[in-house]
Amino acid sequence: xDRCAHIFLSAVLLAATLSFWL
Length: 22
Fold this sequence. Notes:
Elements: H1 3-21
């Protein structure tokens, strides 16, 4: 399990959540 991939997916999910709420 790659930690970099986890951070990348977390950032994508965060961006999607922000774009959804804003």
